[in-house]
């Protein structure tokens, strides 16, 4: 081999150009650099209680494939000049704690094609996430109290309200603090103790939009942390014990709830043509006398200007009832028993909706 005076040459073996990198020929360059640096062992932590994984200080619920992708991205280091990189991996479980990750990597450095194979061992360690630690310590930030006005809710109604919490949790972004510390029936209602205030408030808004009613919030100081007061939220949700169309005794008169409003309901008086708005607080004193499902549709046998007669569906005896102020012969008559007496009800829009549903 002859070298021209002043010509370039490989600094390692003296070979003639082409040269790459720090003035090395291709064989010398390939001996001294690698496309990737892969550690022999990499650790990762899984919660021994719930199975979620710690990723860069955060606990998240991810699949095993996502865990391997995360470990590769975090620990595999590519050469600073690498381009057109391609990577494939295959996992093989060795034991409950150890998994081998076989890597195939290709790319180019300074126009030279590189293909490499490496093996990395993922070593799992048991830990306990913040959520499980707090659950074990009965940690909570908020208590949601489900109550009613007008009448006591049935167990089925409380169950329906409780199911909506699961739906809200499914729709919200995954957060390990969205957990239920405890729950159960209490005198007059149902209490759910939650690990997050935001979850409690979101559920409360959902209940109001879905079922009406109103919410009252209160906060108590549970202690101090880093010089800041630690507070706990109590959220009281009062669901109306009545539905649109039910008969209520309110202000010593009989009314029907005609429609909901943002702040309460529009009440329609039974014995005369009168409508008025009422807030949720106003209606706390209202008592449900009969529900829509307890009403009867009857045909009048005889009638005059103010009174009609029909067959009592429970006794099949002729019964008299005062006709409602908006009575029309072309419209079915809706009646209900209030404290043992039959009362004829005036017509509301919800009556037509109910009739269509029954058809």
Commentary on this structure:
The protein is an alpha+beta fold. The protein folds into three domains: about 40-130, no CATH class; about 140-240; about 245-345, no CATH class. Helices cover about 20% and strands about 45% of the residues. The chain is built from six helices and 24 strands. A six-stranded mixed sheet has the order 4-3-2-8-7-6, covered by helices on one side. The chain has a five-stranded mixed sheet with strand order 10-11-9-13-12, with helices on one face. Strands 17-16-15-14-18 form a five-stranded antiparallel sheet, with no helix packed on it. Helix 4 packs across helix 5. It is elongated. The chain starts with about 25 loop residues before the first helix and ends with a helix.
Summarize the helices and strands and which ones pair or pack:
Elements: H1 26-32, E1 36-37, E2 41-47, E3 53-55, E4 58-60, H2 64-75, E5 77-78, E6 82-93, E7 98-109, E8 112-127, H3 130-136, E9 142-149, H4 155-171, E10 180-186, E11 189-194, H5 197-211, E12 214-225, E13 228-240, E14 247-250, E15 253-260, E16 264-269, E17 275-279, E18 287-290, E19 296-298, E20 302-303, E21 307-311, E22 318-322, E23 333-338, E24 341-345, H6 349-358
Parallel strand pairs: 2-8, 9-13
Antiparallel strand pairs: 1-5, 2-3, 3-4, 6-7, 7-8, 9-11, 10-11, 12-13, 14-15, 14-18, 15-16, 16-17, 19-23, 20-21, 21-22, 23-24
Provide tags for this entry:
single chain, 359 residues, alpha+beta, 3 domains, 6 helices, 43% strand
